[in-house]
Design brief:
The chain is mostly beta strands and 336 residues long.
Amino acid sequence: MPGEKRQVKIFTYECQRKANNELALVISNEKGCKHPALQGKLVRPYDIIEVSRIIRKLEYKSLFQCVVGGDKGYYLTDIGCKVDGKKYDIGYFVAHEKDVYKCVRPIAGGVHLIYVPVDQLTCRYGNKVYKNGDEFKSADGISHYQCVHGTLVKTGCFVHDKRIPANQLMYCNDKPYFCPGKGEGVIPIPIRGCYRKDGQLIKIGDSFNEKDIVYSCTYTKNENIYKPVIVPIGCVYNGKVIPLNSYILHQSKHIVCEVDKSFTVIAHPATPQQEQCIEKTATYNCQGNGNGNGEGGTVTSPPSNGGSGNEYTATPGTGQGNHGNEGPGSTKPGSG
């Protein structure tokens, strides 16, 4: 029954109900995990082990990792498959020679490859059937699709003979268009961009520097109403750009770009507490819950009718953004 535990020698066996309502047998130990193939062998905490398998003459490995569990114990979790030295996550397809396989986990501890027949790799669009890898356009010539392992994937949109990648925005004839990854067609954005106080037009997605802060032009949408918005996205320090809620290493010191308590974006040397967090967790705020990619907190500003000085406002982030060694980050400084 779910929640029931039994102790057998050095291992604890527990029946757990996962978030997706599936039942899983979790085998744990305070000093490590039970090896899935070698009797009585412990896997050290956080180690990744490989178990050799074979399917249709293809040799591959199932991957497991010993992770921390409840009650100070550890348990083995499936993390994927390895083919020809390359790791594939669970649910991913593997193309090998002329065959296609899929890395699956039907039950906990049972990650393995399965062979996918050719007839399960086709896609249907309208009245036509497309083979795996086929590319085609919609009837109106706007949407571009590809059949990928049995799934119809929208890869782009065509506007004025220009191809816009799916889920991206691009200007065509000085007008912005967004290509949604799902659904037919392309979305014209009814604004040209953001205007600075001096009248300079900043295109959506472009950035510019104002004093020691980097800003970017974006937009908000409420029902069918679009508004241009300028948001701070980083700091300029010693000629380098630090993404907001991130840090760099400059002359043996960590420099942090964040929003202070007065809602001002600033770059400053890391405090002793932040240095401790960086050393222990590679983030500068141990209490934060950012997403680790330079976007640890939201940033906001009023709709862009310009703005002078550093008048744009921001919301404090959480300090778990990207970091680097005095690199330019992911933002290209503008010329403003």
